[in-house]
Amino acid sequence: MSEEKYLTRLAALLRQAESTDNDHESEAFMAAAQRLATATSIDLAVARAHSERTERRAAPIARRIEIGPPNKRALRTYVQLFLAVAHANELTCDLASNSTYVIAYGFDSDIATCEALYASLLVQMVRASDTYLRSGAHRRETRVVEQRGRDGRWRAVHKPVHGITARISFQTAFARRIGERLTAERAETTAAVLAEAAPAARTGTELVLQEKALEISDFYARTSEAGGTWRGWEGSGRSSTLAERAGRRAADAARTRSAPELPGERPALSR
After folding, report:
1. Angle ∠(114,211,44) on CA atoms, nearest 5
2. pLDDT under 50 in the chain at which residues?
3. What angle is formed at CA 98 by the lines to CA 97 and CA 101, rounded to 5 degrees?
4. Cα 10-16-17 angle, rounded to 5 deg
5. Which of the residues 27, 93, 117, 165 could staple to 269 if both were Cys, CB 3.0 to 4.6 A apart?
6. Is 170 helix (H, G, I), strand (E, B) or coil?
7. In the prediction, which pLDDT does 181 show?
8. Domain assignment present for 9
9. Complete DSSP assignment for 176-218
10. Does some domain include residue 269?
11. What does the pLDDT read at residue 271?
12. Confidence (pLDDT) at 151
């Protein structure tokens, strides 16, 4: 198939996915586009640029993604996981101060695949952290706390790491490691596609990716009303080295690739 026909076909699938009001049809068209693409994000970006030459193409959007209810423990680690996935997939995000939701800025298909991968990784992260806590391994680690004795004097006391501290350390490390994995995978995929392309096509693809990033940046600058800084769990002073190591191991074992797709399934983000 020639490059022109390939782009035309992929652009048509994207147009059908983005124009229908039927969720099942939209997902089926996106799955077909995913199967057709060799490297998803690059091919979708090129297809959007191709569509612009023939018809009005999709524009960036902002979408609110609910993370969890207020006061839920370790909720900020959920946000950290979403940000890890979003950063690796060219999305810009605003965060609620209480970590209950995220506003993602980018193209609709990119946000949808980001949501799908986040949902899968979240289940894996929570399940792995539950398994770690049930093992009791975190109790082998102690921390020094100042405690007043019956005589009124303060003294240093060694106490086991609390379960919530272990969970937060585990899930924070998991999210950080997932971000490293996805970023590396994306860089490898991009480099491989560019290396295989003809010089002219390589230059065109690079320009399309730059234009896509600039379009999202401009849209964010015009749309976002966010202010302040979100720090996640940094500065809490609580951590568990054993739990962090376990979280990174669990992230290395986590599945970041989709199973073979069937019509109607959401495409996964990483390849």
Report:
1. 45
2. 1-3, 38-40, 42, 55, 235, 258-271
3. 90
4. 90
5. 117
6. helix
7. 93
8. no
9. HHHHHHHHHHHHHHHHHHHHHS-HHHHHHHHHHHHHHHHHHHH
10. no
11. 33
12. 75
Angle at 189 between CA 186 and CA 192, to 5 degrees: 150
Q: Which residues contact 140 (CB under 8 A, 6 or more apart)?
A: 160, 242
Which residues pair with residue 92 across a beta bridge?
105
- The tokens for 84 are 């890890």
**Among 214, 194, 130, 213, CA closest to 166:** 130
Q: What is the pLDDT of residue 82?
A: 97
Name the helix (H) or strand (E) containing 103: strand 101-106
Residue 36 inside a domain? The answer is no
Domain coverage including residue 121: 60-205+214-253
Cα distance between residue 69 and residue 81, in whole Å = 16
| Distance in angstroms (rounded) separating the CA atoms of residues 254 and 252 | 6
Cα 156 from chain centre: 41
Q: Residue 17 and residue 34: Cα distance in Å, rounded?
A: 11
116/111 Cα distance (integer angstroms): 9
For residues 191 and 170, what is the distance between their CA atoms, to the nearest angstrom?
A: 32
Number of domains in the chain: 1
Dihedral of the alpha carbons of 139, 143, 144, 148, in degrees to the nearest 10 = -50
Contacts for 54 with CB less than 8 Å, ≥ 6 apart: 8, 11
Q: What is the pLDDT of residues 18-39, one digit of tens each?
A: 665 666 666 666 666 555 554 4
CA dihedral 88, 169, 243, 253 (to 10 degrees): -20
Q: Which residues share a beta bridge with 63?
A: 104
Q: Is residue 65 a part of any domain in this protein?
A: yes
C-beta atoms surrounding 77 within 10 Å: 27
